[in-house]
Design brief:
Elements lengths: L3 E8 L3 E8 L5 E4 L4 H11 L5 E3 L5 H4 L2 H8 L2 E5 L11 E3 L4 E4 L2 E7 L8 E5 L4 E5 L2 E2 L2 E2 L7 H12 L6 E4 L4 H11 L4 H15 L7 E2 H7 L8 H6 L7 H13 L2
Parallel strand pairs: 3-4, 4-5, 5-6, 10-13
Antiparallel strand pairs: 1-2, 2-3, 7-8, 8-9, 9-10, 11-12, 13-14
Helix pairs in contact: 5-6
The protein binds zinc ion (ZN) and fe (iii) ion.
C-alpha cells in the first residue's frame, strides 16, 4: 500500500488535471490530461516521468493529451471498459468493482454513467482521494448528456457512499456558479450558505475551491441530497421519488 502525492494542474479555462505519484515503485499517473503541454511542463518542473494516463471518460477536455503523452513517454492508458472504443490509445480497461493497482497504490473503480455512458471514477482509499471526472463536482454534478437521471442519481449514490473524509478531485472549477444555483434550492441550509460565502471569498482572490471534502458535499451539494425531504419540498415535489427530485434539480440547473 502506498499513499499518493497529488499535483493539481489548472488547464484550459476551468479544467483540473492531476498528476499522481506513488512512492513504492515510482509510478506517475496523469488523470484526465486535457492537453499534453501543461502536463509535460509540470512533469519537468517536478522531475517526474509519466508511466500512466488515467481517464474517467472520453470527452476531449479529459483525453486531448492522451496520444501525444503516450508517444512521448511510452506510458500506458487506463480507462473505462464500457467506453473502450472512444478512449484514444487505451491499453487497460477497467470497470465497476475492479481494483486498479497503480504501483503500490490501489484504486477501486466505479462505473458512474450519466454524464457519458462509459464514465468511471477511481477511489484511492488509502490516500482518501476520489477522482470523479465530470460526475461529481464541488456543489454540483455533471450535465446528463448520455444517460438518464436515474443512472446519474445511482452513480452519485455510489460516490456518496464513500467516507466523509474523502477528498473530491473533480475535473472542473465550476464551484462558484454551482454555489449560486445551490442556494436557490436550499435557501435555509446554513452550511451551504456559509460555504457559498467562503467560495466567493476564495474566487475573489482567484484561489482554487477544488478538491473538496466529500462530507461537506453530502451536507451542501443539492445533487447529493435529492432524497432529503426538505429538498423534495423545496422543489415542489414533496411526494416525489429521489430520481424525480434529482431530475428536477438537474433540469433547473440546466436552465439556470
Ligand atoms: Zn465531460
Ligand atoms: Fe469535462
Amino acid at each position: 500500500m502506498s499513499t499518493l502525492e497529488i499535483e493539481q494542474i489548472p488547464t484550459r479555462s476551468d479544467n483540473y488535471v492531476y498528476l499522481i505519484k506513488e512512492s513504492g515503485q515510482g509510478k506517475v499517473g496523469v488523470v484526465d490530461p486535457s492537453d499534453a503541454e501543461p502536463v509535460i511542463e509540470a512533469l519537468d518542473r517536478l522531475g517526474w516521468t509519466l508511466t500512466h494516463i488515467i481517464n474517467t471518460h472520453h470527452h476531449n477536455d479529459h483525453t486531448g493529451g492522451n496520444l501525444e503523452l503516450k508517444e512521448k513517454y511510452g506510458c500506458e492508458i487506463v480507462g473505462p471498459l464500457a467506453d473502450h472504443d472512444r478512449i484514444a490509445g487505451i491499453d487497460i480497461d477497467v470497470g465497476d468493482g475492479d481494483t486498479y493497482t497503480f504501483g503500490d497504490a490501489v484504486a477501486k473503480v466505479y462505473d458512474t454513467p450519466g454524464h457519458t455512458r462509459g464514465h468511471i471514477g477511481y477511489w484511492f482509499e488509502e490516500s482518501k482521494a476520489l477522482f470523479c471526472g465530470d460526475t461529481l463536482f464541488a456543489l454540483g454534478c455533471g450535465r446528463v448528456f448520455e444517460g438518464t437521471f436515474e443512472q446519474m442519481w445511482d452513480s452519485l449514490g455510489k460516490l456518496r457512499a464513500l467516507p466523509d473524509d474523502t477528498m473530491v478531485y473533480c475535473a472542473h472549477e465550476y464551484t462558484q456558479a454551482n454555489a449560486k444555483f445551490a442556494v436557490t434550492i436550499e435557501t435555509d441550509n446554513q452550511a451551504l450558505i456559509e460555504r457559498a460565502a467562503e467560495i466567493d471569498a476564495l474566487r475573489a482572490e482567484n484561489k482554487r475551491t477544488v478538491p473538496s471534502l466529500l462530507g461537506l458535499e453530502k451536507e451542501t451539494n443539492p445533487f447529493l441530497r435529492a432524497d432529503v425531504a426538505s429538498v423534495a419540498e423545496a422543489v415542489g415535489l414533496p411526494n416525489g421519488s429521489p430520481v424525480e427530485v434529482f431530475g428536477e434539480i438537474r433540469t433547473r440547473k440546466d436552465n439556470f
